[in-house]
Amino acid sequence: MQIGIVGLGLLGGSLAKALKKNTPHRVFGVDLDEEVVKSALAAHAIDGTGRIEECDVVFLCLYPKAAVEYALNNTFKACAVVTDICGVKRFVSDAIAVPLRKRGIRYVGSHPMAGREVSGFAASDADLFHGASYIITQRADTDEDAVRVLSSLALSIGFASVTRSTPEEHDRIIAYTSQLAHVVSNCYMRNPDALQRGFSANSFLDLTRVAKLNPAMWAELFMENAEYLMEDISLFIENLSQIKGALLARDEESLRRLLKEGSDIKSKISAD
Fold first, then answer.
1. How much is the pTM?
2. Is-contact 28 46, C-beta < 8 A?
3. How far are the Cα atoms of 37, 75, 177, 215, 234 from residue 181, in angstroms, in the given order?
4. Span 36-48, pLDDT tens digits
5. Domain 2-165 falls in which CATH fold?
6. At the N or C end, where does the chain have fewer CB atoms within 10 A?
């Protein structure tokens, strides 16, 4: 099988390396940066460049808008499986699923739940996906065989599980589990006391790990999922207000109750 990777950044590069390491498939890659392509060839992460239109499976490892533009304006092999790995699914799915289907292309949305605070091909790793979850988002018209192909590939390169969802459910859940965490971490770092390094410990490091992000990518992801993300931000503000209200009222009992609620939920999640 021939597999195409469009965009050889952290995830695209890691996919290419993982596929070369763990499968017999031939891998072809393209990237706007010719130096990245040269690096991928030198690292034997890809067998060659171009030839995306000849590939049986194509991974679009691009920002959402760029993924849509590429899918709508490029040629794919008849019956090829095309998947984007964007962090939001409704926007991409709504834009390309039907046009691709009319061209005989089998589109499936997906999202590898793996990453790092750094980006680019230089940070890519063949083992990045080990133990992670691979999410596949299905529409009513999604081809089941295409889902099986992607599921098999995901498991073969180290993903521990494949989770099926819908674009809507994915975006609703990811707004809380991923996007809100990045918002909170980033806002926390914009506090004037963030530079007081001599007073920081593990709690500071834990909360700020994802604050070092790619502003262009995350801004696009936030905007394309603004509806769900704003709901979670509002709820988070309400939770903060409850803590602040207890402090203003000098109500230690209420404060203990609020802290216990959060602690108990974390304990339950950890136990599961």
1. 0.91
2. yes
3. 33, 37, 7, 14, 14
4. 999 999 999 999 9
5. Rossmann fold (3.40.50)
6. C
